[in-house]
Each structure stands twice: as C-alpha cells, then as structure tokens.
C-alpha cells in the first residue's frame, strides 16, 4: 500500500489506516485461534490421535476414563492392524460403534477443521471453474451440487430409465 501511495503521490487518511490496522489485528486473532502459537504443545497433547499405540503418558486433553479406554485400545491387536491398514479418519470413525465412542468423538473434532477447510477450498475452486466470463449469468447452484457430491451418477441406468418422446 505504501508503494502505491508513494507512486501516485497520495496520502492515506487516518481513518482508512486505522480501519486497515483493526482489520489486520482481527485477521491475526482469527489465525491464532485456528493455528495457535504454541503449536508444538498442542500437537504433543493430541499425539494420541495420530498414533494411539505409542502413547506413554496421559495426555492432558483426555479425562481419566478416556485414558483408560485408550489403554484398552492399545492392547487390542485387531485394532492395531486396523490402524495400520486404514487412514486416521477411517480408523477413528470405525471405533464409534465399539466401546471407544468418547475417544472417537474427540479425535473427530480434531480432524474437523481440516475437512471444513478442504471442502471450502474445493467448493470455491469448482465455483471459479464453472463461473467463467463466458458463463457469468449462469446459476451455478445445480452445477455445484453435482460437482461437489460424492455420489457418482449411474449414466447407464439413467439412460435406460429415460422415456423417449413419442412421435406427434
């Protein structure tokens, strides 16, 4: 901004500068909420989510009963093989049906911000690709619904069920 003002021999008003400073402070606070400065402490406290089978001490984020369930979980060899063969999310979601629902819920809340960010970014990317300058008046809602859905259409079934128009 300073370079632009100097290039055009302009001065920024005090109100605008104060508003920009306030906006940047709020943005910084928002980032600190999502990405805390003591990230190492936060990661160490939630290391049990990334590898529950390597936990040696009780994490401060877990209650005593949850820690006992974590100990039970680490002694189950079938769960260990499931952990090694699945992604983090699949593993923790599979525990929801078993006796580890509390741990599963806590792990899910740690993964949630990343999924939401990914969905927002993929949604915006699809929107930007659909809403080009040649299609600027297009209502993109139906197209986005198809682009962002995980359900893949069965084209053969749709064509088979399509009723042909009869002759007049």
TrEMBL record:
It comes from the Eukaryota. This is Transposase. It comes from Macrosiphum euphorbiae (potato aphid).
